């Protein structure tokens, strides 16, 4: 056992982590470091600091009372009177929304109501025909489909997306691997994305959306293909983001989720001629 892993395990024990969980976390951390091509100290930094960081995150999922107690910060996303048409057909009309740091907003509505269109407008990928969109800070966008390359591995995606955010390859891989672990996924460095299941590809999209530590996360039905355990991991991650002061906007068709969010935008398809 290396000095780094010994100190890492010792710190986990001092912080009260059960032996079984500490051993598993140590094995996973050393595995991620090996895949990243460096020793753990080079990838994760000092062992005691990284151990404390992981334990804080493991204990960082707030309960129901803590979720309600989060105090919103400054406005991160504001929509005023937003409208959009395609080929003369109106899809969105007079949409208003304000999301602050530490808040979660859901976009709901029937098929064809413009949910994904609205999210792309929020991300700056589409320009509205009318109204105003104001964003503060960095945004991370997770589409329902696409955004990844079948011929690349997950780690190659981490490096590529990390480079766009000014991250070194080693830092991007270690960060991506850590975020993946929060969704109970350990990327295989030899497997290309085209070989992954739909749910695992969606995990990759979530990791890529969060890789550059955005202030605003825009998620288009981000749990497609998730099993029940991963679905719960996803919502635990939403509460971590919220507690950390991020703003989250997600498109969903699961109406039972709406008691867990701060704002709801209910879109209705615009009838022809109206």
Task: Explain what this protein looks like in three dimensions.
By secondary structure, this protein is of the alpha/beta class. It has helices at 3-14, 19-35, 40-44, 47-58, 64-69, 115-123, 154-164, 169-181, 198-210, 228-243, and strands spanning 75-86, 89-100, 104-109, 130-135, 139-142, 216-220, 247-251, 263-267. The strands form 2 sheets. It has a 5-stranded parallel sheet, with helices on both faces. The chain has a 3-stranded antiparallel sheet with strand order 2-1-4, with helices on one face.
Strand order of the largest sheet: 5-6-7-3-8
Q: Termini, distance in Å?
A: 71 Å
How would a textbook summarize the main sheet? 5 strands, parallel
SS strand fraction:
15-25%
Q: What distinguishing features does this structure have?
A:
274 residues, alpha/beta, 3-stranded antiparallel sheet, 10 helices
Layout of helices and strands:
Blueprint: H1 3-14, H2 19-35, H3 40-44, H4 47-58, H5 64-69, E1 75-86, E2 89-100, E3 104-109, H6 115-123, E4 130-135, E5 139-142, H7 154-164, H8 169-181, H9 198-210, E6 216-220, H10 228-243, E7 247-251, E8 263-267
Parallel strand pairs: 3-7, 3-8, 5-6, 6-7
Antiparallel strand pairs: 1-2, 1-4
Helix pairs in contact: 1-2, 1-4, 7-8
Brief overview, please?
With 274 residues, the chain is an alpha/beta fold. The protein is 42% helix and 20% strand.
């Amino acid at each position: 056992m290396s000095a780094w892993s010994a100190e890492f395990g010792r710190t986990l024990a001092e912080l009260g982590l059960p032996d079984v969980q500490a051993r598993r976390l140590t094995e996973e951390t050393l595995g991620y470091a090996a895949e990243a091509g460096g020793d753990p100290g080079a990838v994760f930094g000092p062992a005691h600091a990284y151990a404390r960081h992981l334990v804080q995150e493991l204990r960082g999922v707030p309960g129901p009372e803590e979720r309600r107690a989060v105090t919103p910060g400054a406005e991160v996303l504001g929509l005023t009177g937003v409208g959009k048409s395609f080929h003369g057909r109106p899809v969105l009309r007079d949409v208003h929304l304000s999301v602050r740091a530490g808040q979660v907003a859901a976009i709901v509505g029937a098929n064809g109501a413009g949910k994904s269109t609205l999210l792309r407008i929020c991300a700056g990928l589409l320009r509205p025909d009318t109204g105003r969109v104001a964003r503060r800070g960095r945004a991370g966008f997770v589409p329902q489909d696409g955004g990844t390359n079948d011929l690349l591995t997950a780690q190659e995606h981490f490096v590529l997306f990390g480079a766009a955010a000014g991250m070194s390859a080693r830092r991007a891989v270690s960060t991506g691997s850590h975020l993946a672990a929060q969704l109970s996924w350990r990327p295989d460095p030899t497997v290309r994305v085209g070989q992954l299941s739909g749910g695992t590809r969606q995990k990759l999209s979530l990791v890529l959306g969060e890789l550059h530590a955005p202030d605003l996360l825009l998620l288009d039905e981000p749990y497609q293909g998730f099993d029940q355990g991963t679905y719960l991991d996803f919502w635990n991650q939403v509460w971590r983001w919220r507690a950390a002061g991020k703003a989250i906007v997600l498109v969903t068709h699961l109406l039972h989720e709406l008691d867990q969010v701060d704002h709801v935008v209910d879109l209705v398809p615009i009838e022809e001629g109206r």
